[in-house]
Specification:
The protein contains 24 helices and 20 strands. It has about 675 residues and is α/β, with parallel strands linked by helices. Bound molecules: S-adenosyl-L-homocysteine (SAH).
Amino acid sequence: MAMRSQAERRAAMVERNIARRGIRSPLVLEALGAVPREQFLPAALGEFAYDDAPLPIDEGQTISQPYIVALMTEALGLQGGERVLEIGTGSGYAAAVLAHIAKDVYTVERYGQLATKAADTLSHLGYGNVHVLHGDGTLGWPEHAPYDAIVVAAGGPSVPEALKAQLKVGGRLVIPVGADRGLQELVRVTRRSQHDYQQEDLADVRFVPLVGAEGWAPERPDDIPPPAPPPRRRSRDADLELVESIRAACEPFQDIETVDLNPLLARIGDARVVLLGEASHGTSEFYRMRERISRELIERRGFSFVAIEGDWPDAARVDHYVRHAEYPPSEWTAFARFPTWMWRNEEVRRFVDWLRDHNQQLEPQRRVTFRGLDLYSLYNSIRSVLAYLDQVDPHTARVARLRYGCLTPWEADPATYGRAALTGQYETCETKVVAMLNTLRSKQQAYAEHDGERFLDAMQNAQLVANAEQYYRIMYYGSRASWNLRDGHMFDTLKNLLEFYGPDSRGIVWAHNSHVGDSIATEMSHRGEYNIGHLCKQEFGRAAFSIGFGTHDGTVAAASDWDGPMQTMKVTPSLANSYEALCHEAGEQQFLLSLRAPSSPELLAGLSRPRLERAIGVIYRPETELQSHYFQADLTRQFDEYIWFDRTHAVTPLQVQMLAGLPDTYPFGV
Ligand code: SAH
């Protein structure tokens, strides 16, 4: 693809990320289309100027996401010619957008260094109608009041009275407000008369805190605006030093089979949950290293189960196999849904075979189990619940058939159920699936008496059905709600397992980096999303240990589109300025890097500055890699440990002929 100019990228962003997301005001669209955002960013970030994402600027602050700037500006209802007050100049970008529409823009910033720099950039670009003040914006800028519109680019605990007072009658004030320092509701306050203010909620947002007299207190006593700008090193030099500290701190190894994992096990200590990530869903090295670590944890630390980012009933099939359970072979194929290569591959099969051998020597009740955390198996879970009830309680089985029948028409494509239920064309099945879950729960005493394991299995399936039903309905509200529901389900399943196996039990989780790394450290949290890694940190603190994986280049198994065929694709070398690029430059083929106990303060400081990180899922689109696969993260807060493979290879999917001669209980039928 030919390199596009910044102007072309800007136009594309305005079209794709602003206009198509519902911003209609021609004045706002024009302004966004005119301001050169790259000029407001540190030089190294210029290439991301039109990504429609917030990006880091100095003093730990951020330049707002263009869409949010557009949304807030539109909410001000400007017609042209107004006097506008902005609180939180930051880079000066939003002030420039406002200056295209308003007559005069007064903007206040609490960090002197940012104020000076923004004033320079703005005057350099010819924005003569923007006036910058260094000070506490929660007090407004009374000399130029009253204002037609006021916009606050940082989140406060409440709407500052000083700002309300400086609004003209008829004027609008847009501000993020929330009881949490980092999560807010965007509200618009309209001054209807001298004493009458009307307030509306506009959207959920995430802004840096508004710190000041009518805002939050500084987080640390030393978090006061510095008097003079400290000298800053050029970032390239800083990166070279950082690469040096990575090289000094990392523990290189030759081979996955022979790597000495004692230092890692010491760092893991007696963690109750170890979360093993992956930077793609189709990389052999990640699977093999997870296997190696899991074997150590099972053999030497008594871990009792492995729970994967796969569906519960599918994993149950593997579980029967590895624990030598006497179940008749099932009629359906485990892991048959897209993307089949994610679990039906040679690497997983090796681990499964090892687990089966390992379990052979153990008493049945001490065998290590294999579980699934995910919730995409609505219909297989229904079948499992029915099969269970047919055996233990045929009367309840009949009730269950009636209730679950509500979902039967949608088996071919459950997403259409969500749409039909949402638009009211079809009754929702919510009460029925929840009633079924409650029925099962109420029979715990009677059922679990025969066989606690099988009761756990039925309960998990009934829970899965209830959550999946909800999942398909809320999918249409946007990705946040469904993502959180899914990770919440995975976390609850994990907790149920720990409870089931008792207070001394320990579990291993295999899931993508985007699930196991703490979401608070990534862009996900800006969208209000959380994940199992975050929930584990909250629940278990240091007893949850999360390991991230990364790679520079090589090949990966992935598809170009959802439901598309698996391909072996080339992984593009990592982008400059990413964590991956730093690790690559460290020059070792593979290494372990402790992030929980970094060996030097420089390493900790260097790796804690947000940077790009790559995530490849089941889909890989190298053509739009930056937009599709990179996000901002703070590695040290995301993971406790990072494992690097400079060059990686695609997994080997299982072929039919490989399965010849295996017992018919073998779970990976093709
Ligand atoms: N509009 C900016 C976004 C900046 S982020 C842009 O487009 O780049 C919010 C900014 O608000 C930060 O720079 C932060 O330092 C500043 N801020 C926080 N509390 C403030 C206060 N009380 N007065 C003025 N600025 C404040």
